Amino acid sequence: MARLIDSKINRLPARQPAGFLFQVNFHDIQALAMLIALLVPLALAVIIYGAMLTRAAIAARATPKVEALVLGAVVNFFDTLGIGSFATTTAWMKFRRMVPDRLIPPTMIAGLTPPAMAESIVFLVLLGGLVSPVLLVGGALATFAGGVLGAPLVARSRVWIVQATVAAGLVLAGTAFTLSNLGLFPAGGTASALPTGLTIIAIAASFVFGLLANFGVGNYAPTLAMLSLMGLDPRYSFPIMAAGASLMGAGSGVQHLKIGEVDLRIVLGLAIGGIPAVLVAALIVKSMPIEPLRWLVIVVVFYAAAVMTRSAIKGHREHRAEGATAPVTAS
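Structure (tokenized):
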């Protein structure tokens, strides 16, 4: 994504001559209307989620942990430049045992949502008007719906199921990072819109990605791969992914805050440290060589996946043992 930020700015329309507003065609007006229609609920989500997080923090008298502040700044800085934040945050939380494994996904969603909102606003302003409005809005809303429905599922799931799903997400992210570094990631096409059939498939898949995000499986890698294989210009995937992640995070994050199991000190640290890091990366740094760092991340992510898989297998065996030794009650 590092080079994409520069390309986004360079590909924006040049300064138009006087009177060009009267030459805008119907498609431009429609695209602008759809973009505004997405920015408005996103702005409301920012206000509502920010208010709920602030109220919860004040009620619990929570202050951000220094470690979470640093973690939020680092993972969101590199997330904006092309190294996803879910996999790196999961790996760090697992190694440092910051929270129980079952609470890693909801803690990440609650804490990484505010930086994702800042990131989505940047991408929507730069590229949102150039993407198919149906694909953009439909994909974002589908991811949101999946996130809302998935939040209670992860809260009721057994620990080993969450661990196994998180491990699968880490493997997926590590594979995507490896393919990217080797130049084997789907190159994508040049389209800014998809045929009706592929658009419906993409929107339906976005719902699934939103649901899985509650289990720690980031939506960026699968969405980018899917849309690239469908022929979409990879640049246009970013506003779709970022807007979906923001709305999904707000919807499911609110529920996780209400459930009350997440550590607000970590949530606040991720949020407060992440927002300025996103803005610095997107608007000031814009690009930097990240391939060598991504190789290190690949090693860490695959190792974390192995550790999480081991925990899931152990938890599954313990669950089966408990079921086998449970007393039989008379009917």
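The first helix runs from residue 2 to 10. DSSP finds twelve helices and no strands in the chain.
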